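User: Fold this, then the next.

Assistant: Folding the first:
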Amino acid sequence: MATNPLLQLKDYGQSVWYDTVDREQLNNGLFKRLLDEDGIVGVTSNPTIFQKSISHGHAYDEQMDQLLKEGKDTGEIYDALAITDIRTVADMLKPIYERTHGHDGYVSLEVSPDLSHDTEASLSEARRFWKMVDRPNLMIKIPGTPEGLPAVRQALVEGLNINITLIFSIQTYREVAEAYISALEERKAEGKDISHIASVASFFVSRVDTLVDKLLEEKVKATSDPEEQKKLKSLEGKAAIANARLVYQDFKSIFHSPRFEALKHSGAHVQRPLWASTSTKNPAYRDVLYAEELIGPDTVDTMPLETIENFRDHGRVGMTVENNIPQAKAELDELEQLGISYDKVTQQLQDEGVQKFADSFHELFKGIEGKKNAIAEKQGAH
């Protein structure tokens, strides 16, 4: 039997986390199979994921019914449903957490995206979720917005595990790494343990190509020069991987520096880059493109089910994250010369990312309201 390519990734130092929390999959054994057969060692969730899981099917109806009888409001219902799932997943991942000494085995729960631009509110929600879930292998997700970063740093100082999400630019990545390292330094100076704190920097990949390709396409249409068109076309599908590879170079220099070495002596873990949004959005590209091109030590790839199945079937495994670094720099420079601003692209993507999660969150609350009304009507009919 051919070796499952997903299982081979760990030989290159990469962990695969599953980008879904879904009660139906917890109940029907699919999630357990992913852990046992595909070597999945962690889980991420976000408002869009919960919106899909809770709105579809009936896996949540019984608990929702009970919560309604207890007179809970929509916010309390969401908290209870999400936290039940997160705890279930955390407990299923606990053996991995223990076996890997806290390297893997985490599940992430995101603060409300409505708080993305409110430092204090993000921090207080992070503390609240940390207390409510009450599991050492929980990561709280906070966006890497200018207002999110001080909340990230303070939460780490307080000993919470943090997954910083919606990172698109190299500059934001550097600020995220700085928040992590300075938080550990502060804890260490206070004589507190830093060996159990874990953090990942969720760097988004495929969405960069989605936007850059669209801008390139517009420029192709705007010129009749065949040479110019060829040059523009040659850059399609290149920006996302180039961006992530350059971030990995930064990761290496930051976490192999004398400054971080001093923390390592006190048991600090590196803050791994987590490749998020690695499903392929453009059907013209290979369906495992982003998963194949960013394999390397001390990285996490969080994949949705479709990408996991595709990679299991035909993923090619090799040390790829450091391929063609000079070319990666050249590609981003060329885009800049062609009038596609890196800073504008990455800022737009972060703003849109926050908005998409907020829309899903509001959609989710509407869905809970709808289910509430349907259940209430059913109860009234009896």
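Now the next one, as you asked:
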Amino acid sequence: MVRTLGLGCLLVAAMVSAACSNSVKGASSQDVPRIPVKIEVARSVPLSDTTEYVATLKSRDSAILMPQVEGQITEISVRSGDHVSAGAVMMQIDPTKQQATVNSQEHNRTAQEANLKWAQSQYERTSGLYAAGVVSKQDLDQSKSTLDNAQAQVRALDAQVQEQQVQLRYYRVTAPTNGIVGDIPVRVGDRVTTTSMLTTVDKPGSLEAYIYVPVERSSQLKAEMPVQIVDGTGNTLADSRISFLSPQVDNTTQTVLVKARIANNEDKLRNMQFIRARVIWGMRQGPVVPVLAVSRIGGQYFSFVAEDQNGKLVARQKPLRIGEMVGNDYVVLEGIKPGDKVIVSGTQFLVDGALVAPQE
């Protein structure tokens, strides 16, 4: 009898204890605070499928000036940055030796012209004597041969003088076209050869972007494909299209050369400048999320998404792979799909699994 009462008391006590425990757990579940957050639904927008490459800008009207003769520079008439017209004298190489050669050739021609006059007069005299029967046909032929030889020598000397005069003009370096003078690495007194670079003349407003695309994507390249030149912040500096597509692969870099003509009317870009070129492969649909909703931890991007769990909203941290920025949004390549409820405020107070309450 006593044992039965004892067991009954223990059973009642256990039931009371369990009931109290369940009552406390239910109360704590109802009292857990929910973190107020703002939520935006990830939307799908049309996006450009693009890839950025480092490109080199080269002038389509850039001339590298190199001397056609050897000698010492005696005068430099321009400075870097000067605007020059075609034919303007830029430098002078000492022409003294060449001028002496021209003078010598001209003197030789003058002497030969005197010989030609004498041969001409001799032929005319011999012709008259032959007509009178005083000299033989052989004498006439010999006189004619002497005249022909003198005429040939004069013509040869004329060609030599002209050649040396042309060579003399090479000692005066002139601008091949209108443009801007580049760097001048030589100084007055320097001796230059035919391999020395004197300077450059660049015509502004006409550049070409040299883009090297990995061979893996070469099959997607097409003529007239859109290309954008962008700065470090992604702002577009110029729009263009592919104007040249190399049929060969660079054996060293395993890339394909692509060229795009760039209008540079405002002189914002420079010849031989490294720039970022964005090749636009096409258009696609993809989700975007506000920049404020994305955090970066240890090089990995994350965002919180509000998910429905048993009728309650729970914050779940999602790792992201993001693309470029579009306005104030990131393009999401992986991690979020259109329609997900992205938490855009209060993320600094969130942990994975925290209960949240949406705010207006």
